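Posting for a labmate who doesn't have an account.
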Amino acid sequence: MNQETRPSTVTRSFRFENELSYILEEEAERMGISVNALVGIILRRYCDFTRYLSKIDMIVINREFLTFLLDTYDDDSIRKMGTKLGQIIPSDTIMFWKKEINEYSVLEYIEKIICRYGHLGTYDEILQSEVRTVVIRHRLGKKGSIFFQAYFCSALKVMLGIDANFEITDSSLKFDIINSSKN
């Protein structure tokens, strides 16, 4: 990042309890970053996600619990559940969180709310010509892929009018968005 595109910063001074300071130092060392960088990550997560948790009615659950729940349903029931939830939850969440629904805010929802902060997968995308390819890797098994496919397919259709093409495996899904000019 060059000087022109680097976000402006402000210097702040905080007081921490000794125990908290020690934990931050240990964690920063484990991660190979400075305490300042770690506190920046924590504050970014709070600003982007944590402060909205109760307002968008989200909870944190164990991945094993979620995988077990998915495994109790047949594939068709999971598709129906993903489709129904994809019609409602993303648009309500994005409208509250970003105040507008467009391609950028929908992809940011998938990247940040679902993947980065929701810890449900890792997000990657590439834009080539007029095709944006999104890949999500997860650890929820084949039924997780089926759920995500139905959820995202429904969400993209309802919010952006996009019929994306999906490919799924037991631990990932990929979809393409053509003509990504609805920003």
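Reply:
Got it, the structure tokens are right above this. The beta strands are 122-128, 131-137, 165-168, 172-178.
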